[in-house]
Amino acid sequence: MADRLAVGMEMRMAEDRRRLNRGADDAIGGGTPADRANPDRLVYADWSERLEMGLPLIDAQHKRFFELAASFQGNGDEVRVIKTLAILSDYIRSHLRDEEALMAAAHYPGLEAHRRQHAEFRSLLAALVGRARQMSLDAIADEVKFLVNGWFYRHIITVDFEYAPYLVPGHSGKPAAPKDKGT
Question: Quick one: 20 exposed, middle or buried, by C-beta within 10 A (0-12, 13-18, 19+)?
Fold first, then answer.
């Protein structure tokens, strides 16, 4: 029974990865022909102007996160990959803390729900850091890609765009929509 559950979970995770990768591909222009030919191969979603919220500090932090995540290619030595994962983890903790502080200062009404989502991401990242030493470099890279393409990318274009208007002077209180700049 436990084996069937594990196999079922792995199959669902593989399908989620394919679906999320296709969603990221749609958002960033489809990836390379090799990526489209092999749906199990994940590519990183790239930073694009579509993700800009109009908040320079947060936009710069989001962009830096994508740059750090892109450094995971599954090649290199284990020490470099583990160090980069630790840097990425520290960076995201700092970013989420900054983002929550800005929302609190602006009295954003959705702050508690947003904090819960951040706690979920912190938990996913901490679990990856905890498992990393027992994983292959390629497996670590795939997990980072899954977190970036799935959770983080989706979080920015949906949840983060909801608080952006509250941080702009004279806000309307209406959620913003992701920019459509043809990217």
Answer: buried
Q: Per-residue pLDDT tens for 154-164?
A: 899 999 999 99
User: Which class is 53-183 in CATH?
Assistant: mainly alpha
pLDDT of residue 10: 44
For residue 56, pLDDT beyond 50: yes
**Residue 105 pLDDT > 90, yes or no?**
yes
**How many CA atoms within 13 Å lie on the side-chain side of 166?**
20
- Report d(CA 175, CA 173) in Å as an integer: 7
Is residue 174 a contact partner of residue 122, using CB atoms and an 8 Å limit? no
Please name the residue that has the structure tokens 């090649």.
Answer: 75
pTM over 0.70: no
Burial 56-81 (b: 16+ CB within 10 A, else e): eebbebbeebbebbbbbeeeeeeeeb
- Domain regions of the chain by residue span: 1-41, 53-183
